[in-house]
Amino acid sequence: MIMVESQVLLFGDDPTGRREHPFAAVVLRGPTGDVTGAGGWWFNPRAFLATGLDSVVRDRLNTNPRMYGGLEATRNLCVQVFDSEGHEVARVRDPGFTNTARSADMTGPFEGFHVSVTATSRAPVSIAQRFVMVEVVFIFVLTGVMLGAVFVGLRYILRQIELVQEKSSFVSNVTHELKTPIAVVKLAVETLEMKRFRGPEEEGKYLRTIMREADRLAQLVDNILDFSRLEAGKKMLRMGPVGVSDVVASTLESFRLRLEDAGFLLDVDVPEDLPLVRADGIALQHCLLNLLDNAVKYSRERKEIRVFARARDGFVGISVADRGIGIEAEHQTRIFDKFVRVETGLVHTVKGAGLGLSLVDQIIRAHYGRVEVASTPGEGSIFTLLVPVWADGTGTPRPKS
Length: 401
Ligand code: ADP
Known about the structure:
22% strand
């Protein structure tokens, strides 16, 4: 036999928002007194107890003692009854994810039980909460997007400022680079014109100075012209089979004067039997000249330069090694960017436009080759131009990486 116990609980403030509205709860016990089910309604208790209880027990509880309830007033509410140990003994509907649960201890015949009423997920309060959650997520995402946009905008502005600074320092560096040799040449020519030298030896010295400074000027002008042609995509390379030893010899020919004047020891090791490379000979000379120029500029007391070439995996590597100031590892990729000069050591006293390596890199890439650098600060640097070997005109060897 199923026993039915009922109780009317008065909630001061119920979850449906209706004040002072009574809650009717029913607990079912089996023959041994165990709780087999429970339920509850917001309802007029007197009327319910007088007329409704019998039919509810007869029609619903006997057939499905754990699932019942469902009157209008409780449509969006979950009712849970817990025993004294906190175990759920009955439930009508599942609770939604809300923090609006109201609960009360039951008294009288239900002493020790505890009933809790929570909004289900379909209750307006839950829908409102979900809506608020969606709004919070939306605001969060929107804030993220706005912060991201501000960040990207700031970075763009900073980069533009940096570019403007780089360009203005480029212009002042180039101006200085152009003015210095012009001033030196002017002075030497004046001295020669006014015959203010003591004998043929000194005359020769002035002539050499003019020659050297003219070379420097020519190289700088070449760099600037090449740079603007490359930037405009107008530099044309005339590819053909080129002998590395010829390129090295003719480059050194024009550079030897500068090396001797600066007191450098030069060691050249270029085997005659190297394979031909696929290159524009003049552009390759220009690259080598830039590497040699840097080797001179960034050396201090150890004035030694070594030029060597080796065949390697379908490429010929032409290297220029110096015993100069070297380059910190963190700057070794940056130096190939245009206008970049490393702000340390000798670089403050040595003038430059920050164009040379960027040009070398672009020209060698256009050959499907690459430039490698190995350097230890204080010990020196080795720059290597890797140029693909000439494949008998059958195709262009591609670089491995
Ligand atoms: P520039 O010499 O006109 O400044 P480059 O593009 O030729 O411009 O070189 C970029 C930077 O790389 C130089 O400013 C210098 O800091 C560094 N660098 C290039 N070659 C060497 C080298 N052989 N030894 C040390 N640092 C070098």
